[in-house]
Input
Amino acid sequence: MLYIVLLLLMIAVPGLGYQLYQRQRRDKQRKLLEMNYAKQINSAPLKVDAPMERMLKKNSQLVRVSDLLDQNIIYKAGIATGLSLVLFWIDAQGIYAMGSNMLMAAIFVIVAAVILLPDRIKNMAVKRRMKSICNDLPFIIDMVAVCVQSGMTVEAALRYISDNTRDINPDIASMLDRTMLKNEVSGIVAALEQLYEEVPANEVRMFCSTLQQSIKYGSSVYQVLVDLSKEIRDIQLLAVEEKVASLSARMTVPMIAFIMFPLLLIVAGPGIIGMMSTWGN
Output
């Protein structure tokens, strides 16, 4: 039994050490990749701004309905009252007999769910759509680079992409449409600045900062955009590798809890029972 425990520890401890080493290496690589953008990007988690949230509500019915329920107390009260009346009717008709305590607990759960769930659902939907924007942005950057390389200006490239990517990602199309409207009023620099401030995503802010620097200093936009797309993909790949690598470390605890201790009981159980019976006699 002791050898089995030592064997499990010999397997678990080097595995944990290797995972810690890999995590430190990935963190170091990520810092090197983001070093050029450390001044422009705030890595702290940001709340979605009102303009971006309004844009997402136009493209997502789930975000729109959950926000409507979250902002309107009358709707919440109506839904909670309706569901409570349904419970009273089910109990009165004898479809499912509930005691008074159970009925009150069910009503309390309904009220809590109606109050808390809309905001949670809205935040989850917004995060999911923001993640979709970040995942598709490298392809959009490649398209901008190809358009610029073909002779189009940055403004014309963004306009062309916003008109032709609505079926692929409507959120990115709406985001670029808003940027082009600002461009017609204040110019491309102000439009990119507005996009930088409104969209709380590091990938979008890296894109805006890169275009602003290229426009300001007159550098080659094509090569800069190609390098930016590659760096964003590398950062996203590192994030995926970190999640995958952490799975083995997370599996160590359930393996110890559900394999090692039951194995100890199986191996040592008969001997302990025999000793207890011997001492009892």
In short: Residues 48-257 form one domain. The longest helix spans residues 221-280. Confidence is low (pLDDT under 50) at residues 1-5, 37-49.
